[in-house]
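Message: Just now I want nothing more than another pair of eyes on a protein record. I am handing you a single protein, as its sequence and its fold in token form. As I understand it, each token names a local backbone shape. Take your time, and here it is.
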Amino acid sequence: MKAEINMDLRITFIKVAGGYNALSDVFASVGVGSTKAKAEKSLKEALGITFKWCIKHGTLFEALESEGFKQKVVLPPKTKEKSYKKINYNLPLGQYGKEKRQYA
């Protein structure tokens, strides 16, 4: 039986010279790009590398729990300095883990 984790993550876009940085509090991840879309794609690639490493070493569930994943995510209000966006990240787990867990 194959499984997957579906996560909603908060990312922050910061305008920098030549483009944007996309920052996530999860695993202190960052993506860069000339547009917000490219920065978001770069961030997802960085998260993918981290998650694959955790799966390979059997520490994914512990890592997610240590990052404080809970059933409900509350986003802060938008500010002029930073803009927030809620993104959806699907993490296929294959045969990893024997018990079902839900993260948000």
